Amino acid sequence: MSKISDETGYHNSDYRLPAGSEHCSKLKPVVEAATALDRVKAVVDVLYSPGGCPWDGKQTNESLLKNLLEETYEYIDAVETHDRDNMREELGDVLLQSVFQARVCESDAEDPFDIDEVADRLVNKLITRHPHVFAADDVADSSDADGNGGEAASQFESPEAVLALWEKMKQQEKHRKSVLEGISRAQGALPRAAKVVSRISKSPNADELFAAFGPIGTFVVLITVARPCGSRRVGLSFLSRGK
Fold first, then answer.
1. pTM (2 d.p.)
2. CA separation (Å) from 89 to 93, 102, 116?
3. Which is deepest, 7, 90, 135, 147, by most CB within 10 Å?
């Protein structure tokens, strides 16, 4: 039993099929799945495969983007309104979009991959970007022996230090030539501007880069001020007054 299930009180063995569906042969992979996430994968596979749902079977990575965006916003609303029950449902919908996207990718003729490859790639990224947590045991032991282990670990005790390390590791992996490289063009204008500000503020030449904004410097300052407030709506409501 996992630590998480101990804390929430929910156990994998608690699952039961919805009433009336117990004798559906198509659900055999769902019943036999070892974990809850495997059940999600199994039911999505049935829906997307031939003989499944006509709508699901016609979806593409592109056609599902609208759903992914909508479900993400709905989860954000649930979090911001502190609706725990709705968070359960909306987070499930976000999970569905990830699994569904990966199932579509699995059928690609030129470059197929599945959710397991996606998950393993994520695990490797989390490990390599947290060297202060996942250092080799022999390295940690030798550091403790010579008295330097505590000092090395203390460098990453603050969230700011850890974030700086994450960005450093990311920069090494991506080989980016510019602080603005890699910012998604699919974002709306306001979140994209916020991302630009975030990237620039982490640069050693931040003051010079901000000065280069010239006439739109006021807008940059607005984003900079709005971001620490912890609300997307601060900047949006402020901007709406000027319309």
1. 0.69
2. 6, 20, 23
3. 90
Residue-range definition of the domain harbouring residue 215: 189-240
Residues whose CB falls within 8 Å of the CB of residue 43, separated by 6 or more in sequence, listed in order:
27, 30
Residue 179 lies in a domain: no
Same domain, 92 and 44: yes
Taking a C-beta distance cutoff of 8 angstroms, is the pair 112, 105 a contact?
Answer: yes
- Same domain for 38 and 77, yes or no, is yes
147 lies in some domain: yes
At 74-89, the pLDDT tens digits run 999 999 999 999 999 9
Q: Which amino acid is at 112?
A: P
Residue 182: both structure tokens together? 């890699």
pLDDT in tens, 170-205: 767 766 666 667 677 777 766 776 777 776 676 666
In the predicted model, what is the mean pLDDT of residues 83-104? 98
Q: What is the DSSP string of 137-179?
A: HHHHHHHHHTT-HHHHHHTT-SHHHHHHHHHHHHHHHHT-SST
**Predicted confidence band of residue 223 (pLDDT cuts 50, 70, 90):** low
Same domain, 54 and 141: no
Interatomic CA distance for residues 211 and 218, integer angstroms: 11
How many domains does the structure of the chain reveal? 3
- Domain assignment of residue 119, yes or no: no
